Amino acid sequence: MKFNVTGMTCAACSARVESAVNKVRGVTHCEVNLLTNSMKVEGGDEHEIISAVERIGYGASVSGKSTVQNDNGAALDTDKEERSLKHRLIASVGFLLVLMYVSMGHMMWGFPMPSFFEENYLALGICQMLLSIIVALINKRFFVNGFKGLINRSPNMDTLVALGSAAAFGYSTYVLFSMTAVHDSATLHKLAHAFYFESSAMILTLITVGKMLEARSKGKTTDALKSLMKLAPKTAVVLRDGVEVTVLAENVLVGDIFLVKPGESIPVDGVVLEGESAVDESVLTGESNPNEKTVGSNVSAATVNTFGFLKCRALKVGEDTTLSEIIRMVSDAAGSKAPIAKVADKVSGIFVPVVLCIAVLTVAIWFLCGATVGFSLARGISVLIISCPCALGLATPVAIMVGSGVGAGHGVLFKSAAALEETGRIKTVVLDKTGTVTKGSPECLGVYPAEDISEKELLSFAGSLESKSEHPLAKAVMKRVEELLVEIAEVESFAISSGNGLTATLDGKPIVGGNLNFITSFIEIGDSVKRLADEVSGKGQTPLFFSFDGKYVGMIAVADAIKQDSPKAINELQKMGIRVVMLTGDNRITAEAVGLKSGVDEIIAGVLPDGKREVIEALKQKGKVMMVGDGINDALALTEADVGVAIGAGTDVAIESADVVLVKSSLSDLVTAVKLGRATLRNIKQNLFWAFIYNIIGIPLAAGAFIKLLGWELEPMFGAAAMSLSSFCVVSNALRLNLFKGFKSAEDKEQNIVTTESEKVKMEKVLKIEGMMCMHCEAHVKKALEALDGVESVVANHEKGTAVITLSADVSDELLKNTVEAEGYKVL
To answer: Which of 170, 190, 535, 663 has a 20 to 30 Å separation from 363 between CA atoms?
Structure first.
């Protein structure tokens, strides 16, 4: 269950809420996120959980079901909080300036005041008191939350601020009333300089400055998430009873037929029924080049149709679209807690009570050492004000929020904060071969039937068996069967031996297919066939053996090409000090051929799914292990690894079992994931170091520990300024992750350069033309347009009613339109 929590202001608050909820009957796990003001709870009754939170002075409510709506609401809450703080700050600064003029400008530097105040120290004191009360009322939230926390025995940052400001105000008020019994002018002047009214107001104002800077910076940490949410199209054009109707995208139903014109965003996930186009999917994959879409191609919500007209059928709508899943993953990762935050959580839980004790001891020690009450109190107030549990609480979640958002922008989806952190600690990367190192779309390169079997007979047996399988190797066999129009039969009792092969019955007789080890458990394979298998394996091809009714019927060789970026990505991982292992169920000869080309450090071949898990367990003894795979047979290994990575084109089981998903199915993105994990982990460590060192140095400085030694004395208002900047510095440091650049292989860079250069020379324009009826019309349009300077070529199509114009120079739309219409056609 996910809850929204209100009233939290610092890490002490989140630690207190977490502790209270963990004590609720049935709750097995609780995570509270200060940045998003959210809480994830496993087990327990929601009403008891809400009651537990409310008992300690905070508010809680169950989050709605819609991820997009929840996160959009959180974004709006952040904006609302920033506006509220801005109004408070403007009002506070206005009255504070007047207070500072009275307290310091007039009394210290002799700035002019009305004659009524001249030498009237009591009136000046009352004026200062009233102004500080106004500032306190403007910022009453600190006192309400602070004293509520104190009453509920859960003191927080607001408690420190409220006590510090109240102590300064209370002491000043005491001094003010004591002046009524004094008639000596010199004594009154001395007492007037003992006021801390301006410190009381300055503390509240500076903390508000810090809070506003923090809110603004926290808002920026969710920019990636906000930009993803803004991508969701608002409307869609659907066919209802043959009529085009514009509806809200959220009202599109599965099975609806929707239309997408050039330049429009695709409203929901679907499949193309009619038309051809190129779709810009950069919002989901980070890939700048549009992907071609034809009949049967899948399209995703929020991607942009660049030029063609598409007619599609809706497959996934609402919360089920790819975009919604990405938003959900980023949100869940940002809302979860990284293991490294545990130290900060432990400290935060006791931080405020310890600071309160230090402040009391500071006042007592200075007073006992002979200092005045005012001086002693100032030291205690400084301790209260400078202490900052916020920086501790924000150190990890802000970096996780920014890191997960940046990852999504590069096509890398982290499912949790732990996954992002662990990715930064990886020592060994284990790669599955098929679909990970290789393209996952193998081709049939050789058919070797037994002596008394024809090639078509072998393909018929193989096709009948492989038609029931979703494995990439099975698809390669089926592609050859379909190309040669080979007839296949329906098999029964079909079964998969994961990582080994397939069995079934055909006309009541057993039919078997698979690798050498699997097939030899059913029949004997001759030495000549084994030699042939070794020969094709040496070329990087995978031999598949088939038998029918206990008799060997032949072998089919299938090969899967290595992805273009795999060697470069593997080399980059090795440069980062990571050991790369290829783990596959394929035979050793084939695996070594692929491993040699890709450049991995170690090859482990012929391993079954259970064996893969055992290999991962052994590798984990040497450090953190990341497993990368795409198939059902990788699910166990993905779960066993410290970090499981599924590629986007993989099976649902693999993606569900993984901690990280690579949207583009590219190993270059794996390098990006590891680099981002390391950058985020480094950022978290910097934040925690700053948060701890700030308090370790700041609290003794505020307490006056360096006054005798170095003469350093910290006034309460400077302590407030330091506290205000501490959280802002932590959040600003995390925002540096937005500057992170993903890894691109040399091929990607070269492709981008070629594309950019070609775009400088050529540009395409598409005209929608009405009136072209035949090929002669096409010829008229083509001839007229190609006669223009700057037009390189024209492809006219009377059926689609379009003319695609390739330009070598800039030609105005108006000239193109006039040229076509001069031939008697209408440009729409």
So the answer is: 190
Q: What are phi and psi of 35, to 5 degrees?
A: -65, -45
Residue 359 CA to residue 353 CA, distance in Å, equals: 10
pLDDT tens track for 754-777: 444 434 445 778 888 888 887 778
Higher per-residue confidence, 472 vs 637 = 637
Give the Å distances, CA to CA, from 36 to 4, 77, 83, 311: 9, 10, 17, 40
Tell me the residue type at 540. G
- Assess contact for 201 and 135: CB atoms under 8 A: yes
Residue-wise pLDDT for 236-248, tens only, equals: 999 988 899 999 9
Answer for the pair 546, 448: CB distance below 8 angstroms, yes or no: no
Q: Which helix (H) or strand (E) holds 379?
A: helix 373-386
Distances (CA, A) of 708 to 360, 382, 698, 703: 20, 17, 16, 12
Beta-strand ranges (E) seen in 642-762 are: 643-647, 660-662
φ/ψ of residue 766, rounded to 5? -120, 125
CA atoms within 13 A on the CB side of 657: 24
pLDDT above 90 as % of the chain: 26
527 is catalytic: no
Q: How confident is the model at residue 750 (pLDDT cuts 50, 70, 90)?
A: very low
CA geometry: angle 208, 214, 220, nearest 5 deg: 145
Cβ(232)–Cβ(66) below 8 Å = no
Quick one: three-class SS letters along 733-795? Answer: HHHHHHHCCCCCCHHHHHHHHHHHHHHHHCEEEEEEEECCCCHHHHHHHHHHHHCCCCEEEEE
Residue 140 Rama label (left phi>0; alpha psi -120 to 50; beta): alpha
Which residues neighbour 549 within 8 Å (Cβ) at sequence distance 6 or greater?
Answer: 509, 510, 511
Distances (CA, A) of 24 to 14, 21, 28, 44, 64: 16, 5, 9, 7, 22
End-to-end Cα distance, the chain: 53
pLDDT tens, residue by residue, 142-152: 888 888 878 87
* Residue 54 near residue 60 (C-beta atoms within 8 A): yes
What is the C-alpha radius of gyration for the chain, rounded to an integer number of angstroms? 35
- The one catalytic residue in 269, 432, 642, 748 is 432
As given in the structure block, the two tokens for residue 5 are: 């929590």
